[in-house]
Write a structure and sequence with these properties.
It catalyses: L-threonyl-[protein] + ATP = O-phospho-L-threonyl-[protein] + ADP + H(+); L-seryl-[protein] + ATP = O-phospho-L-seryl-[protein] + ADP + H(+). Belongs to the protein kinase superfamily. CAMK Ser/Thr protein kinase family. CaMK subfamily. InterPro entries: Ca/CaM-dep_prot_kinase-assoc, Kinase-like_dom_sf, NTF2-like_dom_sf, Prot_kinase_dom, Protein_kinase_ATP_BS, Ser/Thr_kinase_AS. Keywords: ATP-binding, Calmodulin-binding, Kinase, Nucleotide-binding, Phosphoprotein, Serine/threonine-protein kinase, Transferase. Strand 7 and strand 8 form a beta hairpin. Helix 4 (109-128) packs antiparallel against helix 6 and helix 6 crosses helix 12 (284-298). It is built from 16 helices and 14 strands. The longest helix is centred in the last third of the chain and has 23 residues, at 348-370. The protein has helices at 8-12, 51-66, 97-102, 109-128, 182-185, 193-208, 218-227, 242-251, 262-266, 269-272, 274-277, 284-298, 317-320, 348-370, 373-379, 400-408, and strands spanning 13-21, 25-32, 38-45, 75-81, 84-89, 131-132, 141-143, 152-154, 161-162, 385-388, 394-397, 424-434, 440-451, 457-460. The protein has 466 residues and is of the alpha+beta class. A five-stranded antiparallel sheet has the order 1-2-3-5-4. Strands 12-13-14 form a three-stranded antiparallel sheet, with no helix packed on it. A two-stranded antiparallel sheet has the order 6-9.
């Protein structure tokens, strides 16, 4: 790296407890000895970094040094020593913004307006300085302290890039699935508007507690995003003001050239005239949905969006909304910085492990589809923990609860019926789903009617939900 190797960090700073950990780095609280001021030190093990990783580290440090704004976590020092690089940031102690919201006694549309205003201020500062963040999401929105009214701070510029003016170019596939813009998914040239798309997704979540685009299948999720297929369903959106919806529509405009900019968004009436435009009504339903959204984000899942799926989603579609294995996130919060759906095998051992995982996964799905609980338990860890939405989003340990589903699901739907003396036969396909907000609904998806006189089946397709 360009920075001269020295021992300045250990001379000037004292390290304390660990605050967080990544693949090649750890974050620890530290104190500058000369002033007693506390900071957060991101310590990167440079011995494990490739030449490309070193370039990324230099870029991150260069970008962070450039950005000085009250709504951005500030870099105060960048020091390289033998085998390690230290980035010294503001010590932010308030935790994630979304976690703070669900702990509040009162949360309104006006509060959401204030939150997104601070996010837009940080994004606008980035864009004015030729920086595109590329990974705006709840995990990167922190609070300066635990005090009421603490400032929102934008963090993590690991995927940020430098652009010239309104430059549009292909900078690679990067971001987090649910927050990716249509132009990135289409692999078209992109620039600052990708951050505004992500702001639109965040604002949508701030208002109702669930995202505008979601699907457990990443391909279908991407299709939704590219089509801009979102809406404002009742009843939760009925109490949101038209101005708030208008701002979301301007942020989630498919054409990046027509998408609202950060500077323009800050002048939107719902932002700059908050006291008279935004509703002050407490949004309890939003808080409840946001709690479940946060729980899904926090689930520790060892799945990666970089890994190709060994089987098609349709292999277990009929159980997807029914079975209690919701340890899979609706969309991963892990950022992408390479082409999606590719598998990287570094050595033969990794390849063997991959094949073993595929084989066991296929056996697991076969056991589920056949309703074979005995085969299922032989594959699963008896102390496994699952996310069970029907138990109000609780984490359930063990397989006893799973037994209920095996014993009560009609796995085989080819039951014979005697139609010799039947005048009318109806075949009804009914399934139960759980929407993102946590409310269950029964959906009558198809009705087949057969008359004894005509011997013909007539099919109807309609929605009946409860």
């Amino acid at each position: 790296m360009a920075t001269t190797t020295c021992t300045r960090f250990t001379d000037e700073y004292q390290l304390f407890e660990e605050l967080g950990k990544g693949a090649f780095s750890v974050v620890r609280r530290c104190m500058k000895i000369s002033t007693g001021q506390e900071y957060a030190a991101k310590i990167i093990n440079t011995k494990k970094l490739s030449a490309r990783d070193h370039q990324k580290l230099e870029r991150e440090a260069r970008i962070c040094r450039l950005l000085k704004h009250p709504n951005i976590v500030r870099l105060h020092d960048s020091i390289s020593e033998e085998g390690f690089h230290y980035l010294v940031f503001d010590l932010v102690t308030g935790g994630e913004l979304f976690e703070d919201i669900v702990a509040r006694e009162y949360y309104s549309e006006a509060d959401a307006s204030h939150c997104i205003q601070q996010i837009l201020e940080s994004v606008n500062h980035c864009h004015l300085n030729g920086i595109v963040h590329r990974d705006l999401k709840p995990e990167n929105l922190l609070l300066a302290s635990k005090l009421k009214g603490a400032a929102v701070k934008l963090a993590d510029f690991g995927l940020a890039i430098e652009v010239q003016g309104d430059q549009q170019a292909w900078f690679g596939f990067a971001g987090t699935p649910g927050y990716l813009s249509p132009e990135v998914l289409r692999k078209e040239p992109y620039g600052k508007p990708v951050d505004m798309w992500a702001c639109g997704v965040i604002l949508y979540i701030l208002l109702v507690g669930y995202p505008p685009f979601w699907d457990e299948d990443q391909h279908r999720l991407y299709q939704q995003i590219k089509a801009g297929a979102y809406d404002f369903p009742s009843p939760e959106w009925d109490t949101v003001t038209p101005e708030a919806k208008d701002l979301i529509n301007k942020m989630l405009t498919i054409n990046p050239a027509k998408r609202i900019t950060a500077a323009e968004a800050l002048k939107h009436p719902w932002i700059c005239q908050r006291s008279t435009v935004a509703s002050m009504m407490h949004r309890q339903e939003t808080v409840e949905c946001l709690k479940k959204f946060n729980a899904r984000r926090k689930l520790k899942v060892n799945t990666s969006p970089h890994t190709s799926t060994p089987y098609k989603q349709t292999h277990h579609t009929h159980m997807a909304n029914f079975f209690p294995f919701h340890s899979f996130p609706l969309f991963s919060s892990k950022p992408l910085d390479q082409e999606p759906q590719t598998t990287v095998i570094h050595n033969p051992t990794d390849g063997n492990k991959k094949q073993e995982i595929i084989k066991v996964t296929e056996q697991l799905i076969e056991a589920i589809n056949n309703g074979d609980f005995e085969a299922y338990t032989k594959i699963c860890d008896p102390s496994l923990t699952s996310f069970e939405p029907e138990a109000l989003g609780n984490l359930v340990e063990g397989t006893d609860f799973h037994r209920f589903y095996f014993e009560n699901c009609n796995f085989r739907r080819d039951n014979q019926c005697n139609e010799a003396r039947a005048g009318v036969i109806c075949s009804l396909v009914l399934y139960q789903v759980l929407n993102y907000c946590g409310f269950d609904s029964s959906v009558n998806s198809e009705l087949q009617f057969r008359s004894d006189k005509t011997k013909a089946w007539v099919c109807f397709s309609f929605m009946l939900y409860t």
